């Protein structure tokens, strides 16, 4: 179950030119096998060339009955042209079987892992943070994905991500669009830092995303559908 929440929290990064000042927030139900399994909330603000964002994900319904799961994170950084460049990231994760915390700072776009607990011995699959220049953290990725965007920025995606231990990649492309709807195809790909068992189990997780017009004239994510190790999952905006 752990990777469902990691995947939900690290779906993608959608580029988009920042407005001088904007605020976005949203609340999503997470459905698994047709039943409500969790809830995701986020808020983010862009002020000139700076952004701050935070989010919380927690298990509810049938999943909470089986296992309490949570993800709480915050990030901040700069908006340069059409991309987010993080400067700091913190997270606290409870998978129901393990609790972990992480803190990262960024120097010239390269993540510096300040803390990742609990500590463990090095493993062959570990990723060197110094090789992850240009990546974004999970919370920045989540905010960039779910914030409202101009129509021309919908389905625009090709980004690398790093969470302090694992490297991944997300790509999106348009599938179909009409006057009132834009559908995107995408895939989340495990790249490095995962165990051999995880990589053998599955490396690519396809997903689809749907935008609808928002009252502010931009386009808003209404639904995300993805394949997980436990079946199809959906994020549905409330």
In round numbers, the mean pLDDT is 87
Strand content: over 45%
Order of strands side by side in the largest beta sheet? 7-6-5-4-3-2-1-13-12-11-10-9-8
Order of helix and strand elements from N to C terminus: HEEEHEEEEHEEEHEEE
How many helices? The count is 4
Main sheet overview: 13 strands, antiparallel
The percentage helix is: 10-25%
- Poorly predicted regions are 1-7, 9-19
Helical/strand content category: mainly beta
Cα(first) to Cα(last) distance is 23 Å
Report the C-alpha radius of gyration, rounded.
17 Å
The geometry reads as: globular
- The count of β-strands is 13
Compact overview of the structure:
With 238 residues, this protein is mainly β.
